[in-house]
Write a structure and sequence with these properties.
Number of strands: 11
CATH class of the largest domain: Alpha Beta
Mean pLDDT: 87
Helix content: 40-55%
CATH architecture of the largest domain: 3-Layer(aba) Sandwich
Distance between the termini: 22 Å
CATH superfamily of the largest domain: Response regulator
Number of helices: 8
Structural class: alpha/beta
CATH topology of the largest domain: Rossmann fold
Largest sheet: 5 strands, parallel
Radius of gyration: 18 Å
């Protein structure tokens, strides 16, 4: 999942971004409202963590623009403005959640997980396809009732495949949602990570659950796939 952190306190911005990257999210950052709007115009983020006290454009102004142009985008306000009136105004303008500073990172990450489940109409914390199970709360993959050792990027790929298991996912979409702004779309990183994920899954399942539709993208199945990248 790809997240934008909009925070002008640079130490806090980097701490949040690093914590979320450790949890396997793709994270971009910026420190003012105008830059946030420009990024949101160009990139299809899954969620935005938005401070209110921002230079150039205020966070509430950014939120209004998001709701005018991207009504489906999840927005979590993170702000030192903790009065009831500020919370009500933010929620009335369309924020999905509001967390006051100071905060505990574990709570922030739990709220992000909850909002992302809602985005994909995923009420349960478990994703499944055949013998493959992903626990979104614990951030672990279980195959044939045994925990599978995955890198953060492999887990993020598997999570995205299972969230979209009823359709083919293009390489461009994976770049948008699983990699951050530093990704090189021509580096072959997606093929490498999918190949290693396939190898691990195949070793346990004795079949390859990730298929390739040539010229379109990848999909996950509960049976062996004939075409591979």
């Amino acid at each position: 999942m790809r997240i934008l952190i909009v925070e002008d306190e640079l130490d806090l911005q980097e701490a949040i971004a690093e914590g979320l990257r450790i949890e396997g999210y793709a994270v971009d950052t910026c420190d003012n409202g105008q830059a946030a709007y420009e990024l949101l115009y160009d990139i299809n983020y899954d969620l935005v963590v938005l401070d209110l006290n921002l230079p150039k454009w205020d966070g509430l102004e950014v939120l209004e623009k998001i709701r005018d142009e991207r009504p489906e985008l999840k927005v979590l306000i993170l702000s030192a403005r903790d009065s009831v009136n500020d919370k009500v105004k933010g929620l009335d303008l369309g924020a999905n959640d509001y967390l006051a500073k100071p905060f505990d990172f574990a709570e922030l990450e739990a709220r992000i997980r909850n909002l992302l489940r809602r985005k994909f109409v995923q009420e349960s914390s478990m994703l499944s396809c055949g013998a493959i199970n992903v626990d979104l709360s614990k951030r672990v993959a279980i195959v044939n009732e045994n925990e599978l050792s995955l890198t953060k990027k492999e887990f993020a790929l598997l999570e995205y495949f299972l969230l979209n298991k009823d359709r083919v996912v293009s390489q461009e979409e994976l770049i948008e949602h699983v990699w951050d702004q530093n990704a090189d779309s021509f580096s072959g990183a997606i093929r490498v990570h999918i190949a290693t994920l396939r190898k691990k899954l195949r070793a346990v399942l004795q079949y390859d659950p990730i298929g390739t539709k040539i010229g379109v993208g990848y999909y996950v199945s509960d049976k062996d796939s004939d075409v591979h990248a």
